[in-house]
Amino acid sequence: MPVVDNENRLVGIITVDDIVDILQEEATEDMEKMAAIVPTDKPYMKTSVFETYKKRIPWLLLLMVSATFTGAIISSFEEALSVYAALIAYIPMLMDTGGNAGGQASVTIIRGLSLGEITYRDIPRVIWKEIRVAVFCGASLAAANFAKLMLFDRVGLLVAATVCLTLVFAVLVAMLVGCLLPIGAKRIGFDPAVMASPFITTIVDALSLLLYFRVATLVLGIGG
Amino acid sequence: MPVVDNENRLVGIITVDDIVDILQEEATEDMEKMAAIVPTDKPYMKTSVFETYKKRIPWLLLLMVSATFTGAIISSFEEALSVYAALIAYIPMLMDTGGNAGGQASVTIIRGLSLGEITYRDIPRVIWKEIRVAVFCGASLAAANFAKLMLFDRVGLLVAATVCLTLVFAVLVAMLVGCLLPIGAKRIGFDPAVMASPFITTIVDALSLLLYFRVATLVLGIGG
Q1: Per-residue three-class SS string for B133-196
Q2: Is there a contact between A199 and A107 (Cβ–Cβ < 8 Å)?
């Protein structure tokens, strides 16, 4: 593809290789942002240890500090947890599943926005779709988990109900946060790609735990 | 770009648009795999709710079941946790930071493998580099965390030491797992892209907690 100036004089050529390079670099950059890495255009093997460190530490630090809120939520329910110690064992499962569900939704939406497949006027349809997908996913996961809790873990019915109900809500909240944050980021001029799994996970973790303790308070009647 | 058969007869043309489409589809597919989604070549707005559900539920289910092990680890340390209840509050931070660090390493390596920037003979250098990056990241995070634990949370010195020591080990293990699993997957013929954040997180969560309770046993002298 020739590149010409205003008077049609040839000033250069864009080859297919150039286009391939640019597309691959852009995809790499998006993937790095989605993995909470400050993007770089240097190949991994040519980046020094200190440079790699500088690309990884800012988000690690920021996300670590944010996870403090999640810890604070657990602390505030310490008393309730000491009564129903069985509830502690399901915290990782609820956090991970919420994080995974939110990550799936966010990456789908981020990619859709970046390729122009999703535009602002699609937002109501996106939200309505994510709600339905989340309800189906949440219900399937809760059913599988309920069977496991009753048959293998042999916990009480109310504990099983608490965990499974939380699971449905957590997946719903996760997929909604996962689709809304990238759209909101784009709206206010930020790159939606940074609203991917690591960032969503931190938010969804805190929300899942709040839901968990709220549901536990209602179902098991424990104080918060 | 013309496409010819054996006898140099024109059978078709590959346009730049075709190349752009293929590269974007491949990048999308990789991103979906990295987010634990079964890849699809249909745009989001044209996929039905049930199809989207079917793309998300397999990995959500598998990862949920895997998170059971993490729960079992917590259960087996329930007694120790009831003595040092403060330790529970740092579980999300340790799990999240480990997951993020592992995700960063894995995405970098997956992308490097996929673009051909990293080959098998680079493995020793990759491992050595990840170890050094992990030590620097772990040390920085531990230092920041130690200050926060002592100044704001006002926990005891031994609890702070337990959390920070675990953090260093967790980041090290996470970055090693994050670089080794994609390489191992490629070696045995699997697609390295599935070895990204969600999968790594599940493994790193379990390992971080094992480390946490091991360190707590040694530093705080509590029984496991």
Answers
A1: HHHHHHHHHHHHHHHHHHHHHCCCHHHHHHHHHHHHHHHHHHHHHHHHHHHHHHHCCCCHHHHC
A2: no
Element containing residue B218 per DSSP (H, E) = helix B197-220
- Token pair for B93: 């931070």
- pLDDT of B58-115, one tens digit each? 888 888 988 888 888 888 887 777 777 788 889 989 988 998 999 899 988 988 888 8
Residues of chain B found within 8 Å of residue A79, distances taken between Cβ atoms: none
Interface A-B: count of C-beta contacts within 8 A: 280
Question: pLDDT digit string (tens) for B23-40?
Answer: 888 888 888 887 778 888
- C-alpha span between A201 and A208 (Å, rounded): 10
Residue of A nearest to B33 (CA): A104
DSSP-derived secondary structure letter, B8: -
CB–CB of B51/B70 below 8 Å?
A: no
B23 touches chain A (CB under 8 A): yes
Q: Rounded CA gap, B65 and B27, in Å?
A: 29
* 3-class SS of residue A61: helix
Residue A151: DSSP 8-state: I
Q: How far apart are CA A148 and CA B137, in angstroms?
A: 38
For chain A, what's the residue count? 224
* Structural domains of chain B, ranges and CATH numbers in brackets: 70-220 (1.10.357.20)
By C-alpha distance, which of A140, A214, A205 is closest to A174? A205
What's the complex ipTM? 0.85
Query: According to the model, what pLDDT value does residue B25 have?
Result: 83
Show residues of chain A in contact with B43, CB under 8 Å: 112, 115, 117
Higher pLDDT pick, B85 / B216: B216
Cβ atoms of A220 and A58 within 8 Å: the answer is: no
Q: Hey, which of A73-87, A118-132, A186-200, B70-84 has the most confident mean pLDDT?
A: A118-132
CA B190 to mean position of chain CA atoms: 17
Across B10-137, where does the E strand assignment appear?
A: 10-13
**φ, ψ (nearest 5 deg) of residue B149:** -65, -40
